[in-house]
Design brief:
8-stranded parallel β-barrel; binds erythose-4-phosphate
Length: 217
């Protein structure tokens, strides 16, 4: 399973890039507005220059023709741009048009297997089930990830599953076990994935023992 970072924060992207474990970025209008960028396009271009892998930027209109036009524009900003399109009828129409133009789509706000299947059939490169938001309303978000992986595999659909709306490290473990191609994680969750108290106490003890040895010599 690959890991994407779910953020528009340039500092976090630079710091995570140094770890060598991030192969893409997902943004959305809420994440971008949190950063209050002076220039949306410049921000996305900067992200694309830091991370050579897929960078998802979302359309902010609802009608198909407007989405198609906006997506075509955004797709010219960098060669690694992926357009995030919502899982609606207008979004499916947009996806099928963009797919024929070889513009990659990440079908977002996906909450059901039917939406995911239709996205794959329309030609989306990625479909993003929102695990945390499903959990929030009492569903099992990871079941949807498992079902999508099973169905895409069974019918040999090339669309990749991005486990999204990840809230904690256990979501990443479950996404990997479910066979998700990618998990897109907030920066804080990435940091939590790294930490283990036994690693910290192990380092402390190793260094103390080493110090003790050098004092004896
Ligand atoms: C994914 O592409 C979305 O940007 C994101 O995972 C949404 O997560 P949230 O439910 O925490 O807003």
């Amino acid at each position: 399973m690959r890991i994407f970072l779910d953020t528009a924060n340039i500092d976090h992207i630079r710091q995570a890039a140094r770890l060598g474990v991030i192969s893409g970025i997902t943004t959305n209008p809420s994440l971008v507005s949190r950063e209050k960028p002076a220039d949306y396009r410049a921000t996305i271009e900067e992200i694309c220059s830091i991370i050579p892998g897929p960078v998802s930027a979302e359309v902010v209109v609802e009608e198909a023709q407007a989405m198609i036009e906006q997506a075509r524009q955004i797709s010219t900003w960098a060669p690694n741009i992926v357009i995030k399109i919502p899982a609606t009828a207008e979004g499916l129409e947009t996806t099928s048009v963009l797919a024929k133009e070889n513009i990659k789509v990440n079908l977002t706000l996906c909450f059901s297997l039917n939406q995911a299947l239709l996205g794959a059939l329309a030609g989306a490169t990625y479909v993003s089930p929102f695990v945390g938001r499903l959990d929030d309303i009492g569903h099992d978000g990871m079941e949807l990830v498992k079902d999508m992986v099973d169905v895409f595999t069974h019918y040999q659909l090339p669309t990749q599953v991005i486990a999204a709306s990840i809230r904690h490290p256990e979501h990443c473990v479950a996404a990997a076990k479910a066979g998700a191609h990618i998990a897109t994680v907030p920066y804080a969750v990435l940091m939590q994935m790294i930490r283990h108290p036994l690693t910290d106490t192990g380092i402390t003890r190793f260094l103390a023992d080493w110090q003790h040895l050098s004092e004896q010599q």
